[in-house]
Amino acid sequence: MTVKAMTSKEVTKKVFNKEELFIFDVRNESDFQDWKIEGENFEYFNIPYFELLDGVEEIIDKIPSDKEVLVVCAKEGSSIMVAEMLSDAGLKVSYLQGGMKAWSEHLEPVKVGELRDGGEMYQFVRVGKGCLSYMVVSNNEAAIIDATRMTDIYLEFADRIGAKITHVFDTHLHADHISGGRTIAEKTGATYWLPPKDATEVTFAYQPLEDGNDVENGHVKINIHALYSPGHTIGSTSFIVDEKFLLSGDILFIDSIGRPDLAGLAQDWVGDLRESLYKRYRELSEDLTVLPAHFMIIDELNEDGSVAEKLGTLFAKNHGLNIEDGNEFRKMVTENLPPQPNAYQEIRETNMGKMNPDLEKQREMEIGPNRCAVR
Amino acid sequence: MEANKILDAKGLACPMPIVKTKKAMNDLESGQVLEIHATDKGAKNDLTAWAKSGGHELIKHDEENDVFKFWIRKG
What we know:
The complex is a heterodimer of chains A (375) and B (75).
Chain A: E1 4-6, H1 8-16, E2 21-25, H2 29-34, E3 42-46, E4 69-72, H3 77-88, E5 93-96, H4 99-105, E6 108-114, E7 120-126, E8 131-138, E9 141-145, H5 151-160, E10 164-169, H6 181-188, E11 191-194, E12 207-208, E13 224-228, E14 237-241, E15 245-249, E16 257-258, H7 266-280, E17 289-292, E18 309-310, H8 311-317, H9 326-334, H10 344-352, H11 359-365, E19 373-374
Parallel strand pairs in A: 1-5, 2-3, 2-4, 4-5, 9-10, 10-11, 11-12, 15-17
Antiparallel strand pairs in A: 6-7, 7-8, 8-9, 13-14, 14-15, 16-19, 17-18
Chain B: E1 5-9, H1 16-26, E2 33-38, H2 43-53, E3 57-64, E4 67-73
């Protein structure tokens, strides 16, 4: 019997709409424990496909017949096999097209707001990995911030809305995902901006982002203020776009803050992180909408799937912004840190241009959640 | 390492390396060793977990020119 494929886009819709879905994950247990499809109303059942080669009789009563069921594996082959077995046994199930590999690479563009001159701010939500990137569009020109390696998605999107990509930024040297910034700049002739303190070892030419820089995007001026705010990495930079949006990179998230240990010693940078969050950000308008480079948990998504919140609200509600005692803060961001992202050193070297892994290797390096935050 | 049988699962995508391994194992006696060659990167974790759950022993694994080699003793 043939079974239906469900695309990552369809699953994303279910995540955004908080729909119910029963996920039957047939990857091995450790892969499932490490990283899975997250949804507020999703249920999970995990049995590796290789336990089911002789049939699904033993587990079939664990699979509900009155709910939508999605069989998931790493690439899709095993999930098709298991879905077909379930289908032969009389259940109606789908499998995830392209598996977790496709899930990790799916980007969903969400419009997060208007600019004063009639331009738009788009957020590209990488639901599977929790990465967020941005496109600022004004007068047919586009600036991209923290692009993922799925560069075609941005190029096609810009093409569709009739915008020319003129500037590409990375808020910092990423450790959890491979940046698409350099590739986009090469393909479009756009300027690629990096914070120089993070780029001391890069093997390619870039435009240095320094505190106080203003970049024009579109002939109606959009101000992209580079707000130098070290902490996550020594060169971490935040941008204020159109005096309305604060792109906080990996410094400040919705329900967590950046971890300071991925590019060096946490102890050395914890002071910078505190200075950024408790002093520099305090001097900004509370009306700014914070647009971070990541989300950690699915609760951080708004109704429309976007990840955005007023700075004032974060000052009131984000635990990481409300630790009065400096020592307690130091303890929180240096002790009991979550595991580091998969292959983070190799990812950093790739983003510096020191390594040039092929696509398959890049996918493998990026497996798993981003793990850039502490709560 | 001496193997009683060699299985070539190169170029096969998941789940086939394990499906074929399971079939090949059926033809072996307890204590005999199966050598498997695969190119699928997921094979390592999955074969390890599969062998464990089936009571077999993964004796050794190796990587050579992008080919993963495994030696499993039937339990």
